[in-house]
């Protein structure tokens, strides 16, 4: 089994670019760092570095080990934190997954309230919509796929329906309307606010297909913050979930979409462990209450 401390030293050398820099960063001697590198090379049976001038540079195998060990080291760090919690008498830790618009709209106030009520609780927040994250959250706030929102080992709890809205410049010809049909946006220049092929993007494109057209994306912004700025600059319009369009600059306004309305459904997945998790259940109650009474948190989503 690989030694986590040696991996940490190895990653420090790869990240800093030299043995001496890693030693300075870690508070070790350069000799100790070199010994850890030699021991790790023996453990793995890999050539991790090669000479380059007076220094060293990672080999292809070394770079791959550094990249692949990132998540493992993150999980090891989480285990270290659990040990620290136990040693210092803190009662528990809650890992919460979320996607970006729910994170900005809901999580700050929810976590503030939760930790005020449970001061010994440590909350880890993980952006689980980012691909490649290997985490097991206690609660994961997710967008339900069209074929259902289940996940093995988790209880599925619906939270809200989040309609998509049109975000347009305030000087746009449609800006004076409170609502537009999706067909009204047919000939517009569109700005994407999600990754192509992602669930949100597929919802928009499939609903447009149902309305008889395919949107023309001139800009692939791929996330809503940048997309809103492109709209503010007058580059085009964007169709995004209302939750993502809560806070808009004065150059931009949002319009309801009708006939048909793109819609996404948001749920909480609660991990079933066979033992009580009071913190997870309490956060779930707060999420349900928030979406039953959306006026309590600005204008998140309608339940």
UniProtKB/TrEMBL annotation:
Q: Which keywords does this chain's UniProt record carry?
A: DNA-binding, Transcription, Transcription regulation
Q: Which organism is it from?
A: Knoellia aerolata DSM 18566
Instruction: Provide GO CC annotations from the record.
Output: protein-DNA complex
Q: Which SUPFAM superfamilies match?
A: Periplasmic binding protein-like II (SSF53850), Winged helix' DNA-binding domain (SSF46785)
Q: Which family does it belong to?
A: Belongs to the LysR transcriptional regulatory family.
Q: What is this protein called?
A: LysR family transcriptional regulator
PANTHER family from the entry? LYSR SUBSTRATE-BINDING, TRANSCRIPTIONAL DUAL REGULATOR HCAR-RELATED
Which Gene Ontology molecular function entries are recorded, alphabetically?
A: DNA binding; DNA-binding transcription factor activity
- Describe the location of the HTH lysR-type domain by residue ranges: 2-59
Q: Among its keywords, does the record have Transcription regulation?
A: yes
């Amino acid at each position: 089994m690989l030694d986590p401390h040696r991996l940490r030293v190895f990653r420090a050398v790869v990240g800093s670019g030299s043995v001496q820099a890693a030693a300075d960063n870690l508070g070790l001697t350069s000799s100790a760092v070199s010994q850890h590198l030699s021991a790790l090379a023996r453990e793995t049976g890999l050539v991790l570095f090669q000479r380059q001038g007076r220094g060293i540079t990672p080999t292809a195998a070394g770079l791959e080990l550094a990249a692949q060990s990132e998540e493992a080291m993150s999980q090891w760090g989480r285990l270290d934190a659990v040990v620290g919690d136990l040693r210092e008498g803190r009662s528990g830790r809650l890992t919460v997954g979320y996607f970006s618009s729910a994170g900005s709209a809901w999580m700050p106030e929810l976590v503030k309230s939760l930790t005020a009520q449970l001061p010994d609780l440590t909350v880890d927040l993980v952006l689980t919509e980012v691909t490649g994250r290997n985490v097991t959250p206690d609660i994961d706030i997710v967008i339900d796929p069209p074929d259902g929102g289940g996940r093995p080992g988790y209880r599925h709890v619906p939270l809200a329906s989040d309609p998509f809205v049109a975000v347009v410049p305030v000087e746009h010809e449609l800006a004076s309307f409170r609502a537009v049909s999706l067909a009204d946006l047919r000939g517009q220049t569109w700005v994407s606010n999600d990754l192509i092929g992602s669930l949100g993007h597929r919802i928009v494109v499939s609903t447009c297909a149902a309305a008889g057209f395919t949107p023309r994306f001139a800009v692939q912004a791929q996330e809503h913050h940048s997309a809103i700025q492109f709209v503010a600059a007058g580059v085009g319009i964007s169709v995004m979930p209302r939750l993502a369009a809560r806070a808009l600059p004065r150059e931009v306004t949002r319009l309801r979409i009708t006939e048909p309305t793109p819609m996404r459904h948001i749920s909480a997945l609660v991990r079933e462990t066979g033992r009580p998790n009071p913190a997870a259940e309490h956060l779930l109650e707060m999420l349900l209450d928030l979406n039953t009474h959306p006026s309590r948190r600005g204008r998140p989503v309608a339940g």
